[in-house]
Each structure stands twice: as C-alpha cells, then as structure tokens.
Amino acid sequence: MPSDSSYQFTVYNHESGVNIFKILILLNELGLTYKERLLDFGKKEHKEEWYCKMMPNGRIPALVDHWNDDKVVWESNAMLKYLCRYDTEKRLTVSNPELQSEMDTWLFFQSSHQGPMYGQLQWFSFYHEEAIPSAVHRYTAETRRIFGVLDRVLQDREWLVGNKCTIADIAFIKCNEYAARYLLGDNFSLSKEFPNVARWHSTLMARPKVAWVFKYKAEQDCGRERQHVTGETLSSFASRATGLSKKAILAQPAATVNLSAS
Ligand SMILES: N[C@@H](CCC(=O)N[C@@H](CS)C(=O)NCC(=O)O)C(=O)O
Q: Which residues does the UniProt record annotate as the domain GST N-terminal (predicted)?
C-alpha cells in the first residue's frame, strides 16, 4: 500500500558502514528515492528496542519500504535482491532461473566468505584489544584465498554472471576496495597479484553511480564527530593507534582509488 511519504525508502546506516555501499549503489543505479538515517553507535542506538524490533540482529544496514506497507528488509544481500523487484528492465539482475541460481551463489559466497573473512581481518588488525598475530595470519590467508577464487573465475569472463554487471558484482565492491587499500598491507598490489580482480574492480569503480557513492561517503557529514564501527570517535581512536591502525583512521572517509595504477 503506498504511503504518503515523498521518498520510498528509509535506509538505516552508520558513517563507517561497509555493507551499505552496495545498497546505496543499487538505489542510485535504479534511481529509487530514499532518506538515510545515521545511527549513533556511541550511544548504542542500534541496540535500542525500537531498532531491534525492526532489525533483530541490531546491526546496520536495514531498509524500510514505505511504499510497500513499511516492509523491513535487512542483511545487505537480501536487500539487494529485494530492490531488484523495482529493476523492471532487469538492468542489474537476470531473469533466467539458471542464471538466478548463479547470482545467488555469488551473493551467498560474498556474505558467507568475503564479508566475514575480510571483516575479521579488519577486526583483528585494528580493533581487537590484544594483538593476536595468529588470527591476523589466518584471516590474511583467507582474504588472499578469496581474492584468488575471484581471480580464477574472472580469468575468462568479464562479469560474475550472465555477461553483464549484476548485483552479484556490486556486492563485492566495497570489501575489495577496503582490503586492497588497507587490509593486506603497504606492499600489496591488487593488479600484480590478482590482475583479473583488479580489472573487474576498476571497471566497477568507474561506473558513475559507484563513483558518486564513494565520493558521497567520503564527504558524509553526520553532524557529529565520525565514529568507528565500535562507536569510538575518530580522535580518541587516533590518539592511541599506531602503524596500520593509524592508516585505517585515514581510511575512514572512503577515498576512491585508482587500482590499475597500484
Ligand atoms: N551480514 C550483514 C553484516 C552486518 C554488519 O556486520 N554490520 C556491521 C557494520 S558493517 C554493524 O552493524 N556492526 C555494529 C555492531 O556489531 O554492533 C550484512 O551484510 O548486512
């Protein structure tokens, strides 16, 4: 049932959000209308009852579709799939059931492998209270392994599914960008180690709406000091961080990067 809201979606987000990139990219690619609501992790707003009633996992992102009875959708790849119902020309999705199954496979691979492994590497590299080298080693190896899986598949094809850019490709962009820039260290070169991923990633980053979202997120003014995903402010994190962690602080406003030059 259409509500009288002038925009279709409310997107619940945080300034440090990684999974939100794919959602903002798809909303902008499809020209859908939305308003963002930035939660205050410092105040643990994402754990409050009103939010957890809607989003039981108490995390971001989440989406409310005001033009469909305020339907709530969460888990970023489920959100991508939900939004595809509004992609009436199938610009970024596929209709053939075999291809749909392939698309689902990549979406599940992204959310069960890429997201968690890269996420744990970020956690143990920057946020964990004690240094645990074996955990960093384990998740570094997993991150490289996942890049390797993608690189092998992209050796003889331009896109993951159906010879066109789909939500399967979009789902991987932000984690790959962050991992290539920060997680694997200063000497890591995506184009040297995983040239097929680098080519695919550069093509994705060059899409105008993708570039727009990265620029928007870099400039996002949340009206308060930027927070890390832990809720800690940027300046308090900066005062105690060293080495790679210090670089991660600079990474917070997500800058675009020319990976083909690296
Ligand atoms: N699998 C989920 C991951 C959601 C997630 O881990 N969100 C993080 C930020 S990217 C979060 O809300 N962290 C805050 C917390 O754990 O309290 C998705 O893809 O949406």
A: 7-91
